[in-house]
């Protein structure tokens, strides 16, 4: 029997209710990210005030620190962090890979970054061809071979290459190998995939760990998660067709192992039991995605998280349909997001209608509309809290929010110096009810800690409220009208 009930539909968009061991979740739902057992800058009281229904916890981080056994001893993650509503945990695989394999390919979740075969070697100038690695570069100390800290790297063009010393500073060495060619043997490898699982190096202390499908479920059960995700291998758009085929076969075996372990060790009482979501892996290829959707539908999962690579490369060009709007002036790179929406178009008709669907790591304003229209029910995205910390605050169309400004204002701009208005007209969050743009700008420029709380309250509420508006619109069969009001 499914825990999910659809209570309204507008074409393919669904409004539903998902029953969990810690209460009901009304969908579509946006899930704020509580990486390390805390949604950055927000307490559980703040989260309840802004009507967060469910949050996401990161298995990788909690497993390494403070350790899932400790959390279990402390009564589980809900008790540990003082949050009595539902929690979804990921498998930990994404971080194990993204702090390793995927970054070594130089790719983000969306879009290609560079050609296979290039290699960034060290800050001494031995650098591969032009590319960018925007997040998650590693800095290693050459002396003790230990990870020092993460850096952001963006190197484009010959001229910039020569500046690498000044960008990286110190005597640290940055070493990122491309895979599977290049000289991987003499490079630092951060994660390695075997049939057994993912071997990875802790980003905290350089310690070695093995994350198996069984281990991932064990950790998530120790945390007391309401929705657990299976371990899968995150694919890169730079992977060749033969590698993708091999990897997907292995992911199938991992998903079955995850399910077997979960079925054996889950809570006996049905009302207290967590749910297990399968992960729909794949690359930007219709045939592969459809095959995967059909495979995963038969396993008996409680829901599905749609992940994998949405990037294009010489291998994967999708169907290149022109059904999606291409707007070069919009400020959104439709060539990237198009692949996400197209993938949703391919797979959702093949998934069981009566089970929830989660778009892994997706959830900007436009994504919410486009994915809800394609039958997605759950979203998670770090953008609201990350943007808040960077001074980008969400605004609705009432305050001039549109696709071209990504629905944000940069609060540091001088035009807000004497601006008495709230961040967003019509927003009823605590921040907007009590504080002006002028005050928030002052806090931001003064690096006051309070800024982070106030900005995060607004940005997270903004996404929760938008998702709720989408739900209401689906129930009233007016989703198209709401979308037209937002996306012009
Ligand atoms: Zn607000």
Short description:
With 488 residues, the chain is of the alpha/beta class. Helices cover 35% and strands 18% of the residues. It folds into three domains: 4-94 and 207-311 and 334-385, Queuine tRNA-ribosyltransferase-like (TIM Barrel), CATH 3.20.20.105; 98-201, no CATH class; 391-480, no CATH class.
Task: Walk me through what this model shows.
35% of the residues lie in helices and 18% in strands. With 488 residues, the chain is α/β, with parallel strands linked by helices. The strands form five sheets. The chain has a nine-stranded parallel β-sheet. A hairpin with a 5-residue loop joins strand 8 (131-141) and strand 9 (147-155). The longest helix has 27 residues, at 449-475. It is globular and about 60 Å long. The relative contact order is 0.13. Mean pLDDT is 81; it is low at 100-189 and 320-335. Zinc ion (ZN) is lined by residues 423-424, 427, 429, 431-432, 458, 461.
């Amino acid at each position: 029997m499914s825990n999910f009930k659809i209570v309204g539909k507008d074409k393919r968009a669904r409004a539903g209710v998902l029953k969990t061991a810690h209460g009901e979740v009304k969908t579509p739902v946006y899930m704020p990210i509580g990486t390390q057992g805390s949604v950055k800058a927000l307490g559980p009281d703040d989260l309840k005030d802004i009507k967060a229904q469910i949050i996401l916890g990161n298995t990788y981080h909690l497993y390494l620190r403070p350790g899932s056994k400790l959390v279990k001893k402390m009564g589980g993650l809900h008790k540990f962090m003082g949050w009595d509503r539902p929690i979804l945990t990921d498998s930990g695989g994404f971080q194990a890979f993204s702090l390793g394999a995927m970054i070594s390919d130089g790719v983000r979740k969306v879009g290609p970054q560079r050609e296979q075969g290039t290699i960034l070697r060290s800050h001494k100038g031995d650098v591969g061809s032009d590319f960018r690695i925007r997040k998650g570069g590693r800095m290693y100390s050459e002396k003790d071979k230990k990870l020092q800290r993460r850096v952001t790297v963006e190197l484009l063009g010959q001229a910039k290459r020569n500046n690498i010393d000044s960008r990286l500073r110190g005597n640290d060495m940055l070493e990122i190998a491309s895979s599977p060619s290049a000289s991987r043997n003499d490079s630092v490898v951060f994660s390695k995939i075997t049939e057994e699982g993912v071997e990875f190096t802790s980003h905290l202390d350089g310690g070695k760990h093995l994350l198996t499908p069984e281990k991932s479920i064990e950790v998530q059960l120790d945390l007391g998660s309401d929705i657990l995700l299976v371990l899968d291998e995150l694919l890169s758009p730079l992977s060749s067709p033969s590698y993708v085929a091999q990897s997907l076969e292995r992911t199938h075996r991992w998903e079955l192992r995850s399910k077997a372990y979960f079925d054996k060790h889950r809570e006996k009482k049905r009302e207290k039991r967590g749910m297990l979501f399968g992960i729909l892996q794949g690359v930007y290829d219709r045939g592969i995605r459809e095959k995967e959707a059909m495979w995963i539908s038969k396993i008996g999962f409680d829901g599905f998280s749609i992940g994998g690579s949405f990037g294009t490369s010489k291998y994967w060009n999708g169907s290149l349909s022109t059904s999606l709007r291409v707007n070069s002036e919009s400020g959104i790179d439709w060539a990237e997001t198009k692949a996400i929406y197209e993938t949703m178009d391919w797979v959702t008709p093949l998934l069981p209608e009566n089970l929830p669907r989660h778009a892994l790591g997706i959830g900007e304003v436009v994504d919410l509309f486009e994915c809800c229209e394609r039958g997605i029910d759950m979203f998670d995205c770090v953008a609201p809290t990350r943007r808040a910390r960077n001074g980008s605050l969400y605004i609705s169309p009432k305050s001039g929010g549109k696709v071209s400004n990504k629905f944000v204002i940069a609060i540091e701009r001088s035009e807000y110096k004497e601006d008495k208005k709230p961040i967003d007209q019509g927003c009823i969050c605590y921040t907007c009810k009590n504080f002006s743009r002028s005050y928030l700008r002052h806090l931001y420029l003064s690096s006051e800690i309070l800024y982070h709380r106030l900005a995060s309250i607004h940005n997270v509420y903004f996404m929760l409220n938008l998702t709720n508006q989408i739900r209401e619109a689906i129930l009233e069969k007016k989703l198209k009208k709401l979308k037209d009001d937002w996306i012009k």
